[in-house]
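FORM 7B: Structural annotation worksheet

SECTION A. Query
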Amino acid sequence: MDSHTGDDMSVGEVEPMPGYADLITRASTVMPSALRGCSTCGLELSKRTLLDNAYITWTEIGLFFICAVMWTQIRRGLTECLFQPFAQWCSLQPKDSAKMPESSWKLVFYTMSWSYSTYLLFFTNYTFFHDPPSVFYEWKRGMTVPTDIAIAYLIQGSFYGHSIYATVYMDAWRKDSTVMVVHHVITLALITFSYAFRFHNIGLLVLFLHDINDIQLEFTKLNVYFKTRGGGYYLINDILSNMGSVSFSITWFWFRLYWFPLKVLYATCVSSLQSVPNIPFYFFFNSLLLTLLCMNIYWFLYIVAFVAKVLTGQMKDVKDLREYEGEEGAMRAATLLKVQQQSKDAGHLNNSAETQLNNSTEG
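SECTION B. Predicted structure
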């Protein structure tokens, strides 16, 4: 894997970004036409295409697992040595003290990963953000992945491998945690297969458009936790949590529901066939990206619900609508978590915990 140079980039006229109508019209024409033209599509062809086009080494697979374990150990170390002691020193409420390390860890990681993606897209010779169709210029199967993009893929892929484990065994369980696990699996599949099929250019753009919201989300949640601590109320954290909430809502729509479909999906659904007529696994990757868009819309409904509650006066404080609300619900969740850790019959207790949590959700 060699570092990129500007000479390797294909320079041409930049296509104007399409609108929603253009995306729907072109995609609804191109995709059915591609499906009709795939007269030999089937399991056997997919298997042959996979073997002919997927390139990934055992060394890269080994690095993935090593880094996934490394993220888990780094998180545990930071939680025990920094985040938990800091939460205790600040005298956070017990329920906030339990959730603060998770948000702190995610804020640290996503700030680092998004900063690196921003550097690659705006401070190097890559033109993928301003000219998304260029992600497929000069595509060749088994082509060399630039070292800087390969590093970004290793960081992100191993982190989502860690996140699948962390969501189930380390994070606080929320209403959408099941959807979150599905999201991590789909994201990991996209990262792995896009790297193996050398669709790494579009993958870098997808990562950039999604990580910024995670930074704002965790920043907002931390300020929610810190605005009531040590028996006092801190106005600055309340103001920051409200500012973060507004910023999060705006950028979620702008990055995930505007730029993501019009830059990424248009490039993968339409432009990809123009640059590479027989591009492998066209429907597979676009199906995953469309599923990711649906989940972005699903989570956006939580944001809409939050705004509606604030505007109607049903909610006066910023809080995570995905979490189980109410002091009684929080106490029962903590108790059930302790019981689950001590029990050998995990399956039975999970069902019992889910029933009790559902009963306590109304608070």
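SECTION C. Observations
The first strand starts at residue 228 and ends at 229. Residues 1-11, 324-363 have pLDDT under 50 and may be disordered.

SECTION D. Sign-off
Analyst initials: ____
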